[in-house]
Write a structure and sequence with these properties.
alpha/beta; Rossmann fold; Dihydrodipicolinate Reductase, domain 2; 2 domains; nine-stranded mixed sheet; about 30% helix; about 25% strand; binds alpha-L-sorbopyranose; GFO_IDH_MocA-like_dom; Gfo/Idh/MocA family protein; Gfo/Idh/MocA-like_OxRdtase_N; oxidoreductase; Gfo/Idh/MocA_oxidrdct_glycsds
Amino acid sequence: MQDVRVGMVGYKFMGKAHSHAYRDLPMFFPQVPKPVMKLICGRDEAGVKQAAEQFGWEGYVTDWRELLQRDDIDLIDINAPSDAHKEIAIAAARAGKHLFCEKPLALTLEDAREMLAEAEAAGVKHMVGFNYRFAPAVQLAKKLVAEGRLGQIYHFRAWFLQDWIVDPDFPLVWRLQKEIAGSGSHGDLGAHLIDLAHFLVGDIDEVIGMSETFVKERPLPSSMTGLSAKGAKDAPRGPVTVDDATLFMARFSNGALGSFEATRFAPGHRCTNSFEINGSLGSVKFDFERMNELQVYFTSDADDVQGFRRVLATDPAHAYSEAWWPPGHTIGYEHTFIHETVELMKALEENRQPAPDFRDGVKCQEVLEAVDRSIAERRWVKTSEV
Ligand code: SOE
């Protein structure tokens, strides 16, 4: 079993989540190749130096191109802001490096398709970071659907609600700028829901949506800041160029109906990533804020005990759980990244594509783009049109 030597671009929120996954993985999943934390890259030298030391990287660089020249790096992990994904991924693929890229894959569908084509042409492995697939409760939902235990699927209903920009004085951070983020709640939160829909139910045929930007101008930030930035009321303001909320309806190829809601304007909802699936034989309900649980209902239960039951997905019967703690000892957000990385390491060892890969990233981007077109043209749009 060969170690996988990693070079990573980005050191903020996702940089920390991925670094943590690389560090913890060998302790709990010794059966898969060990990720070796070679170099981390960021433009701000003081910031990246501090991150390298704190997260446990061997060293740091300030230009990602240096990572590509190194013979002792096998995998490039890209978690810089979305506008940087394409250039880095394509150059890394051409340099023969495997790719692990955060979502959304790119700013546009065209760019995402180019990234996939380049990765395929270079013959490297590629993965996209849809981490919520890897919560054991989500894996259980997938298993119940795949084994037919929910019967024919009628509905997929999903909502991802946050509230970190409700304050109109929250600054104009990069996630609110189209040229850097691509879109707002749609690509940031909706992308996760779309991937879960693909994973759990199947392909989406057509969509119709609507979106809104409730706060059109915000104070300009003094530096590159994240979700916990503080605004200054009297700072000059600039235009918000992304959606604050995007909702859409969908028809799946298998006949199921879907509804999706992504918003950053739901006070009280910090990170409510939820879905329900209703089938002819039962239903499941998931809420990320209670991520160890899956609510399960089977029509076949005896009349006197009909109802949703709470399954705590921490038993050896549940994906990844045996590697962790005794049943009932719950896990958290960071574990979804560890499980995702386990899948990546396994795939590299077995010389096959991991899942989800750039094809899944492109498929997600097709739906994002079809929704955008449907909003612009006020009509149903088929995913095959984009
Ligand atoms: C911020 O909205 C964010 O961190 C997203 O960027 C992540 O992808 C999502 O998992 C949680 O919220």
